[in-house]
Amino acid sequence: GQIIPERRFVEAINRQAYQYEMGDFPAEWEAWIRKKRKDPPTIEEILKNENYREEMKQKIKDVAEKDKLLQAKEYEEGLVAEPVHTQVKGHASAPYYGKKEPSQDPTSTASTFQPGSWMPPGSGSSHKK
C-alpha cells in the first residue's frame, strides 16, 4: 500500500534538457510542473495570458512616457526642481578620502590612523618655519 507521488516533466523537443533555463516555459506550465495547479494549461489559456502580459507591458510603457512628458512640463513651468546629479569622488570609509599626495600631518578617520610622511627640509612642504 505505498503511494507513489505523481511525477511531472517536459520532454525537450528542440534543445537538450540541460539547455532550458528558468523562464523558457510559459508560467502556466511552470506552475503545473511544480504542482501549483491541478490541471495542465490549455493553448487558449496560454495565449490569453500572453496577450494580457503584452498589453500590460504596452500600458506601462505609455504611462512612463506620459510621466516623463509631465515631469518635463513641470520643470519648464518651475513647479518641480530638476533632479540633482551627484558625482561620487570617493568612499567615506577610504582612509585617504580626498588626498592625492603624502602629507606631513597625520590623519585620522573613525577607527583608522595614518601617520604623516617624512619630507626632507626645504622640499616645499606646507609647514614653513
TrEMBL record:
Residues 82-129 are annotated as: Disordered. One of its GO terms (cellular component) is respiratory chain complex I. It holds the Pfam family NDUFA12. Residues 115-129 have a biased composition (Low complexity). InterPro entries: ComplexI_NDUFA12, NDUFA12. GO terms for biological process: mitochondrial respiratory chain complex I assembly. Residues 104-114 have a biased composition (Polar residues). PANTHER family: ADH DEHYDROGENASE [UBIQUINONE] 1 ALPHA SUBCOMPLEX ASSEMBLY FACTOR 2, NADH DEHYDROGENASE [UBIQUINONE] 1 ALPHA SUBCOMPLEX ASSEMBLY FACTOR 2. Belongs to the complex I NDUFA12 subunit family. This is Mimitin, mitochondrial.
